Amino acid sequence: FDLWKFTTLITLVVIGFFGYALFVILRQKRLSEVQRDFINNVSHELKTPLATLALASTTLHERSAEKDNKYLTIINNEVARLHKNVEDILEASFIESKRPIQKAPLQLDQFLNTLTEGFKSEYASKLISWDLTGEANRAIFSNEKLLEKCIRNLVDNAIKYGGKHIKIAFSQDQNQTVISVADDGPGIPKEHLKKIFKKFYRVPESQHQHNQKGFGLGLHIVKSAVQNLGGKVGVESKIDVGSTFKIILNG
Ligand code: ADP
Question: Which residue ranges does the record assign to the Histidine kinase domain (predicted)?
Answer without folding.
Answer: 41-251
